[in-house]
Structures are given as structure tokens and as C-alpha cells.
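YM 10:42: Ferredoxin reductase sequence, as discussed on the call
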Amino acid sequence: MARAAIQGRLGDRLRWRTAQVEDRRTESGTATTLVLSVPDWPGHLAGQHVDVRLTAEDGYSTQRSYSIASVADGEHLELTVQRIEDGEVSPYLVDALLVGGLVEIRGPVGGWFVWQPEQSEPVLLVAGGSGIVPLMSMIRTRASIGSRVPFRLLYSVRDPADRLYADELRKGSPGLDTSYVYTRVTPDGWPRPAGRVEPDDLVRHGWPPEFEPTCYVCGPTGFVEKAATYLVLLGHSPDRVRTERFG
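YM 10:58: structure's back
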């Protein structure tokens, strides 16, 4: 009976569902948040993602994976998609899929790169570019339940115009500290020169290893590999460094 129930739940998550766009929000010059209504959505955990499938009139089909940005909210979820200029799916989702449009989604997917309300240890979030998306789901979930678990976010972007959720992060929430690293262009008077994340940034804006935080690192593959390596070299347990990469 237990095995049948588990298989049933797994089969439900692997079923393709039709999602309708209820709203769109511009997050930056290259990124858009799609608010989707998904009948019979089974819910999700902060940090999970979905597969999105597009099918052309001639039957050609393609799919990509996108992280969920929102808290679990009944039959609604939000995906923030950043346009890849030579991409096959993201330009359509960002520029052409309008309110009322339909896509197919499958999920939620993933069980390791998640934050759950019962976790009580400090959390370090390290984001590179659109790697902020699943981490934003964690931030929003924490706020929605009134958790007092301390969060620190280190967000690396090329320049200020590339920041996602800038207004929301600026307002913040109690117990959330947000810091930025700009790799190409900095705001006027910014104290740190432009450059990639270095171990010193993780020391200054992260948690000491003896606090035993759980560290979530998400972004392009090279960014994730370097940041995760730095965290381990700084003394964080590899078991507490969770990674999600794209590209």
C-alpha cells in the first residue's frame, strides 16, 4: 500500500498539466515573471523547479526546466524566465507568451535543493544572475510563515540593471541580509570594485563555518563550482553546501 501511494504521487508529479498565464511582470530588461494558474497543482517546496514544454503546430516539441520563484499557493505558481538571445524557449516565454496563453508544465522536480520550514539552522544563499529565482522562493516562503531563521543572501550580477526582484529585496524582511557583488559595472560610489565573487566576499557576507549554516548556491555552472569550492575551503562541511546549476 505504501509503495503504491508513493508511486501514485510520483506519477502525479510527472504528469504534464496545462498552465494558463494569469499575469506577467517585468523583472529586468531581459527577464519576466509569469504567474501561472495550474489546475490540480500538487504544491511544491521552496527551491524546486518544473519542466516547461512547448509544442508547435507541426508537432515539434521542446522543453526546458525553470525554477519556481513563488511560495506554495494552491493552484498558482510563478516562474521568472531570463531571455537567452539564441535560446529556443526563453525568448518565447519572455516576449511572446501573453496573459491568457497556455503552456504545459510538469513537476515539481527536485528534493535536495530545497528549504523547509522545520529547518532551524542559519541559511546562506549565494546567487549568480538568474540563479536568484529558486532562492527567492526560499526567501518568500520564510517570510510567509513568519520564520525567524536568519538568512543571508549574496547576489552576484553583472550590473545594477540585471538585478531581479530589486524592489522586493530592497524592502527586505526581518532577519534577511542582502549583499551584492557586481562583476562588470558598479553603482556610483560602490565600495567594492567590479569583479567575480571571491572567498573574502563569502567571509564578509556569509556565516562562519562554526555556525553550521546550510548554504544554497545557484547560478551558471562555473559560478556554482567556484563558490561551492570556496565555501568548502573556508571550512564549511560539503554536506551543508547544496548546489543547483544551469547552462
